Amino acid sequence: MKLALPKNCITGIKKIDTQHQKLVDAINDLDKAIILNKNNHIVSGILEQMTQYVETHFLDEEEMLRRCQYPRLKEHQQCHSKFIKQIKLFQKMQKQGLPNIETQIFIFLKEWVFIHIKHTDMAYLTHIKLCSNSARVTTWKILTNDDS
Ligand SMILES: [Fe+2]
After folding, report:
1. Which structural domain range is residue 74 located in?
2. How far is the CA of 99 from the centre of ligand 1 (A)?
3. Average pLDDT estimate for 52-66
4. CA nearest 130: which of 62, 67, 59?
5. What is the C-alpha to C-alpha distance for residues 94 and 135, in angstroms, rounded to an integer?
6. Is 20 part of a structural domain of the chain?
7. Distance from the CA of 10 to the center of ligand 1, in angstroms?
8. Which residues surround ligand 1, an ion (CB under 5 A)?
9. Is the pTM of this model over 0.70?
10. Ligand 1 centroid vs 81 CA: distance in angstroms?
11. Which domain CATH number covers 100?
12. How remote is the CA of residue 80 from the centroid of ligand 1, in Å?
């Protein structure tokens, strides 16, 4: 079954929601590759692309939190770097051809991404909204540094 972002995982910040959706799409791609029994090379390509994308997304999100002086930024960054470490470890294991590793990765991703968004990401929303209101700019502008 194709995964989608549930309503309680929608931040209302366009760029963040788009990036989260792309992560979910990548998890769906991995699932599809597992179902179709794609070879190691294809799966590792999906994982590599996803890891790169996740790193970009985390940087964008952390930049937004930094600009808004989010008090729990450090804690949030630690969650992100823990995730990256785990994913890189999984990538290594997958390249070594560990049996059923793809399914384990899929289960981990599916759980982590939704729990992280629902609890850790949604927790910054009130702060971001206050920050964007006080600066009299939209959250979108804060995030993209677009003053136009
Ligand atoms: Fe996050």
Report:
1. 15-144
2. 30
3. 94
4. 67
5. 46
6. yes
7. 13
8. 121
9. yes
10. 10
11. 1.20.120.50
12. 6
